[in-house]
Write a structure and sequence with these properties.
It is found in: Membrane. It comes from Brassica carinata. This is Core-2/I-branching beta-1,6-N-acetylglucosaminyltransferase family protein. Pfam families: Branch. It is a single chain. The protein contains nine helices and 14 strands. By secondary structure, it is an alpha/beta fold. It has one domain: Spore Coat Polysaccharide Biosynthesis Protein SpsA, Chain A, CATH 3.90.550. A four-stranded mixed sheet has the order 2-1-3-6. The relative contact order is 0.12. The chain binds 2-acetamido-2-deoxy-beta-D-glucopyranose (5 copies). The site of one 2-acetamido-2-deoxy-beta-D-glucopyranose has 6 residues, from loops.
Length: about 375
């Protein structure tokens, strides 16, 4: 009792003081925390995204896939909407939902929903942190890296196909799925180009000239290569800086992935060809340099005969007068699974006349095996 009466005033005073201290402490801590949150939010919006685009903050750790349902990730690089969504809708209807995933990089703020696409496969599949892309500049490869990074989040994604908004599939889903999954290699068009001088000596400290490669940007890669591209902090900054200094003629997307994989000594894990068919038109007068442009398929030149005549099953190297037939696992296969560039009208004709994915007619083009 005495102890209690003796201690009581002191302890009571102490408790009140302690309570105040606690209140003040909590107040200060909460203020600091909310300040930190605001700062972090600001930081993540203003700092992290451009940095992650630059490659400094993306890091994907490899993980072994143990499931039995490897997915193909279809990565669409779009300017705005996907005008050929009706073709893809038909294509995906022939698929098993568990066998694929879709990601779209479009301009910031563009949302794929009932109003902007006719296909439910694209609803809400746009990246929420997309960037402004200027075609042919390094922002293009930054967008490709964002797409790969997003798709790597899903561990069942094992093949990653990059497609443009004017691409169409040439076969039904099952065929394309088996083709991609059964190849243990990436499909990356990659060759040494001696005539064109896009390589700059400024890059030589990082990129040896003998590793410099050129090729189509439309790639299909296996998971380990997708991880390597997303984690790359060496080659991407060099190409970006070089593109800034040499604005007129850089086009880093035609060099980046092929050069990176070559530098890492992965040529044996690549089929050095693209799966996306393009018809090239060489134009240019005597005074201008010759330039190559992809031919756009329009309603007039996209009938069944036109498409079949293009011999989509082999690669014709016009400049080398050489025709190459394609193989996968030493078996002859068609060289191309996709084609560009198609207008809406051309794609409509393709769907209505050439019957993509019908059970009667599995492929768009008749493929004659080559012996
Ligand atoms: C973007 O955000 C929306 C809404 O939160 C979400 O439904 C969608 O899946 C996100 N996109 C991707 C590719 O994750
Ligand atoms: C889906 O994936 C499974 C397992 O890889 C495969 O057996 C099946 O044929 C695929 N289905 C389609 C429609 O591609
Ligand atoms: C190399 O870099 C320097 C400055 O860093 C720049 O002035 C020059 O134009 C560059 N050269 C080429 C060929 O890009
Ligand atoms: C090829 O390019 C030239 C000049 O740009 C053009 O006049 C011609 O129509 C093009 N051909 C095709 C098949 O697109
Ligand atoms: C595919 O369809 C076309 C006409 O639509 C037909 O001529 C052709 O024989 C068919 N091919 C096969 C393999 O059924």
């Amino acid at each position: 009792m005495t102890r209690k009466s003796q201690l009581h005033p002191v302890s009571r005073h102490g408790v009140v003081w302690l309570q105040w201290k606690l209140v003040i402490f909590l107040y200060v801590a909460l203020s600091l925390l909310s300040l930190l949150c605001i700062h972090l939010q600001y930081y993540s919006v203003t700092m992290l995204e451009p940095l992650s685009v630059a490659g400094s903050h993306i890091h994907i750790r490899p993980r072994q896939y143990s499931g039995d349902r490897p997915k193909v990730a279809f990565l669409f690089l779009a300017r705005r909407d996907l005008p050929l969504d009706f073709v893809w809708d038909r294509f995906f209807k022939g698929a098993d939902q568990a066998n694929f995933s879709v990601y779209i990089h479009s301009r910031p703020g563009f949302v794929f929903n009932e109003e902007t696409t006719r296909s439910q496969y694209f609803y809400n599949r746009q990246l929420n942190h997309s960037i402004k892309v200027i075609w042919g500049e390094s922002s293009m490869i930054a967008a490709e890296r964002l797409l790969l990074a997003a798709a790597l989040d899903d561990h069942s994604n094992q093949r990653f196909v990059l497609l443009s908004d004017s691409c169409v599939p040439l076969y039904d889903f099952g065929y394309i799925y088996r083709y991609l999954i059964s190849s243990p290699r990436s499909f990356v068009d990659s060759f040494i180009h001696t005539k064109e001088r896009r390589y700059s000596m400024n890059m030589s400290s990082v990129i040896p000239e003998e590793k410099w490669r050129k090729g189509s940007q439309w790639i299909s890669v296996i998971r380990s290569h997708a991880e390597l591209i997303v984690n790359d902090r060496i080659v991407f900054p060099v190409l970006r800086n070089s593109a800034r200094q040499n604005l007129r003629n850089c086009i880093p997307d035609e060099h980046y992935i092929q050069t990176l994989l070559t530098m890492r000594g992965l040529e044996s894990e690549m089929e050095p060809r693209t799966l996306t068919y393009t018809v090239w038109n060489v134009s240019g007068t005597k005074h201008e340099a010759k330039s190559w442009h992809p031919v756009t398929f329009t309603f007039g030149n996209s009938g069944p005969e036109d498409i079949q005549e293009k011999s989509i099953n082999h690669v014709n190297y016009v400049s080398e007068s050489r025709i190459e037939w394609c193989k996968a696992d030493s078996k002859p296969v068609p060289c191309f699974l996709f084609a560009r560039k198609f207008t809406k009208e051309a794609a409509m004709r393709l769907v209505s006349e050439v019957l993509i994915g019908s059970s009667k007619n599995r492929s768009l083009i008749s493929y004659n095996r080559v012996s």
